[in-house]
Sequence to fold (802 residues):
Amino acid sequence: MIKFTNEELKIVKKLEILKNEAGSHSPSVITFKQKLPEVSIRVDACFLSNPYATELFIEYFNKEILSSGKIRDLLESYPSQNGVIAEILAAFMNINPKNIFIGNGAIEIIQAVIHNFTEKKIIINIPTFSSYYEYVKDGVEVVFNELSKEDHYTLDIGGYISLVKKHQPDTIVLINPNNPNGGYTKIADVQRMLDELSFVKNILIDESFIHFAYESETYKLVSLTHLVERYPNLIVLKSMSKDFGVAGIRAGYGIMRAEYVAALLNNGYLWNSNGLAEYFFRLYTRRDFALKYEQVRVKYIMETLDFIRELQQLPWIKVYPSMANFVLIELEEGIRSTEFVAKLLISYGIYVRTCDDKIGLKGQFIRLASRSRQENEYIISSMKACLAMNRMPDLIHESVN
Amino acid sequence: MIKFTNEELKIVKKLEILKNEAGSHSPSVITFKQKLPEVSIRVDACFLSNPYATELFIEYFNKEILSSGKIRDLLESYPSQNGVIAEILAAFMNINPKNIFIGNGAIEIIQAVIHNFTEKKIIINIPTFSSYYEYVKDGVEVVFNELSKEDHYTLDIGGYISLVKKHQPDTIVLINPNNPNGGYTKIADVQRMLDELSFVKNILIDESFIHFAYESETYKLVSLTHLVERYPNLIVLKSMSKDFGVAGIRAGYGIMRAEYVAALLNNGYLWNSNGLAEYFFRLYTRRDFALKYEQVRVKYIMETLDFIRELQQLPWIKVYPSMANFVLIELEEGIRSTEFVAKLLISYGIYVRTCDDKIGLKGQFIRLASRSRQENEYIISSMKACLAMNRMPDLIHESVN
Fold:
């Protein structure tokens, strides 16, 4: 059991209020700084983002936008329309621009697709990213496919295909790797699913964490975007926030059948990219940037693997298998996740996501992001100390505070 | 008649293609640079934006974000959620935060409101900003109220109220001042309308250009936002792009009844602000910024008045009355607007909006934005030369080229 001083208990109360206000998501660090100034965040391990990619982007941004004075254009002028940015991506990704929809973050595309194209029934694997069920319109039936704890919350593809055939939904969602556990479904299994489920109108595959997954020892990028022409019911969504470390920019894309892109653009989404996002998308498609990005992507994957190995050595926690840049951790021995999260934050300045609000998880869970190597080391040593505290007799514990 | 060399004619053709691709809006300057590099834009008089406000914003941005190194946070981290930013605005605007919806540009709010709350019939004054009729859902009847050329395209409030009573729409739209002509409806008239039209479910007032309008000699700001509590059917929309000169940031807000805000946030729009927009909104509510902004707002209004007076002196054009930062100009003596726009662009690098695609305008029209004093002077002298060319005999004209 984790103990708190009276001062700390006050902060715990405030933390709970802040979390409730943010609904099924975590309050942002900016909101945090404003509303809970007594807590100083040293490591944001709630935040799913490659810090080395952020550094790379800032290096380009400094050189090409700030030093050149182009920043004024970027702030002052209207960015290009959706279709213009789609064209830039199309050439790079070798996809017809008519199949590309640019989003103000992937979440705008989740919203657009689910509001416009999901009419009757949606099947969602849980645990999941909550917006997938929160954004459905009134009258749409939501069927939850509870991933099995015994299978480490990974998808049993055969059972899933049978379930979809039984329920006959118009929309299914697969986040790959999944959030919040990082469970990965191999491309071969996804293709089997696509082959067997051609009757489903919308198969949403969310590849927001796909840059951290791999099927070969060289960590080669995997993706399904090229299959949209072959499977017209496939919709691939991609946030750029995580792998490129630019959540503040709000950039994402969706690859989907041309009729869907046309329908969306026909009555909306014209100028939904800002100047920073347009610069990012142009950079994303450049060979010089792509080569450097590949280096920081692989570097981060390798460090994340080290981080996970270290976590697996810690006592009283269970680390679930992950192919993403985060891990789902189950706290054992009666440790409560809200208390553990509060202690890490108050005593160590480490901001971690509690998973209490995640439906489909049975137990005390937290989700921990991999950060820079230095930050990961700090997380490991703090977790160690925090977990050790749990085992200390009350007397010693109280004198520590 | 305006003449072109063969080289120029090729550019004119490309211009037409570019304009067609952009639909009922103008291609952005970035798109322009990319697709028509042979034309160099010296003054973007298509662009409705206060350049002095842009300078003020950049001054703050340099000092507070770039020099301090906070730029990394802004690019890397998730911005605050919609409701958190609404709270910041609420305190400044003295409006309940439950009535504030933050948009990724005003256009996102136009789309959200019209998609979600307009069910049957909408009345739109024309000429107008095209998204208002383009974004209506299938099955919604659009009634155009054609503003009268004889009345200089200003709104006859009495006639308008009668028309709305006759048609019984669920939504009406008033852009005030109107785009593309700048026609202004006084607050007293709008209030009369609100009093008489309580049966209309949604009265949309678009105040995107309201900072350029005034009813007193001190140019004091006018606005209807405070009336939302009194008239629950009033929805005030506001783009920040024009008056604050930050179109690249994508920032806007809507003031509307709490049920509408709740309905929108209930299934979407959670992280629709980017890091730059959040910084802008926080700045917008600060007294030090507000005081400086007021100075550049009034400065720009006064220069715009000078600009309009100069334009009124030019031959062969008719300048329509405007309370915005642009004027609608009718070309006379057989001058064609596409040709005039092409000539200004090719020979003088001045980018002006043709109004050929604006329904409800009868004649050859362009819309001309007020820019900095220096740019306005250049626009005037170039217009003069361009108009004079129209009167030159063909022989002389050809030898000039």
Observations:
- Chain B touches chain A through 61 residues (CB under 8 Å).
- The first helix of chain B runs from residue 6 to 21.
- The first strand of chain B starts at residue 43 and ends at 44.
